[in-house]
Amino acid sequence: MTQAQMGMVTACMKEAGIVTIWKIPMEKINCFGICILEKKSLLNDKGGLDHDRIYKYIMDVMKPDKVKKPIVDGVEACIKDHGDKVRQPNDPNCLAFMEVGICVHDVFLGQCVEG
Length: 115
Known about the structure:
mainly alpha
């Protein structure tokens, strides 16, 4: 993890009131996830996932190359199935993030297990 990435994680932990990255309380995981997306500039100004930026991020960052297409395809399926709106007004617990967030998490986890 780079210093910049560590800075993002630390800032989001502080913002969400998380003490340790190893024990993130379930009630805080959604807002933590949104914070990371915001810090990585992966949300648009309407609170939705920015498809182009996410695609570019996956293509630039993910290794090995063989996991890129399955991750892109999986993330697109998550967005299609659950929508791209993850930040909603009057949503202090960031519940709008939960369905797409869990789906995307499962996509990445599946590649880690299979890859």
